[in-house]
Design a protein that fits this description.
single chain; alpha+beta; GTP Cyclohydrolase I, Chain A, domain 1; GTP Cyclohydrolase I, domain 2; five-stranded mixed beta sheet; two-stranded antiparallel sheet; 7 strands; about 35% helix; elongated; binds guanosine-5'-triphosphate; binds zinc ion; GTP-CH-I_C/QueF; GTP-binding; metal-binding; GTP cyclohydrolase I activity; GTP_CycHdrlase_I
Length: about 210
């Protein structure tokens, strides 16, 4: 059945294999837009001027997009592409772009995630790892929890011999405002199993910093 209230968003179709999210429905967008219209007035703007007429609706859609992770199930993303494979060395997907929003200021933090695991009879489709990162990043977050949630999801679903996650991000709440430090980068890490041993962790960290020639 076609839901007439469903406003299509180009990114909506990009989400394969899971329940189609009904996040862009008209009543939610118009409810949010009314609040954003008030916000525009409260910060000293004229929400009726031409350039701002559609802004409340645009912000609403952007916010719903950036927080769509609440409606996605990271575990089912992984289980949709798990394959039996006799490979027991480290698998690393590095330099995964991360865009999230801090829960304190709702300002972006962004950078890279590096995610590795050691298979235990099963490997997972490579693209599913960045998808899992996005599911947790597209929520209001702190970087530490984001790091742990990615680790726990992979460990609990794939049951590998170990998982390693390192995330490096810049927080706009620390550069655009507040302490106003432009160059500081926050690094967080989370490990399970084999990655708790120094040798494996060192291999992981070396692979992250190695560049292809
Ligand atoms: N641990 C952690 N802190 C974060 C993250 N994102 C933002 N913060 C911090 O959350 C804290 C909130 O502190 P508060 O003192 O309540 O807020 P504030 O007055 O706006 O703080 P300032 O940013 O120092 O001006 C700040 O220190 C932020 O830097 C994150 O991902 N992890
Ligand atoms: Zn913040």
């Amino acid at each position: 059945m076609i839901n007439e209230n469903h406003v299509t968003d180009p990114d909506d179709d990009d989400i394969e294999g899971y329940t189609k999210i009904d996040r862009y429905n008209e009543s939610l967008i118009s409810n949010l837009s009314a609040h954003y219209k008030d916000v525009l007035g409260l910060i000293g703007e004229n929400p009726e001027r031409e350039g701002l007429l559609k802004t409340p609706e645009r912000i609403s859609k952007a916010l719903l997009y950036l927080t769509q992770g609440y409606e996605l199930d990271a575990k089912s993303i992984l289980t949709s592409a798990m394959f039996k494979e006799d490979y027991s060395q480290m698998v690393l997907v590095k330099d995964i772009e991360v865009y999230s929003m801090c829960e304190h200021h709702m300002l972006p933090f962004f950078g890279k995630a590096h995610v590795a695991y050691i298979p235990n009879g099963h490997v997972v489709g490579l693209s599913k790892i960045p998808r899992v990162v996005d599911v947790f990043a597209r929520r209001l977050q702190v970087q530490e929890r984001l790091t742990n949630e990615i680790r726990d999801c992979i460990q609990d679903t794939l049951n590998p011999m170990g998982v390693g996650v390192v995330i490096e991000c810049r927080h706009l709440c620390m550069s655009m405002r507040g302490v106003q430090k432009q160059n500081s980068v926050t690094t967080t890490s989370a490990f399970t199993g084999g990655f708790l041993s120094e040798k494996t962790r060192t291999e992981f960290l070396n692979l992250i910093s190695a560049r292809l020639s």
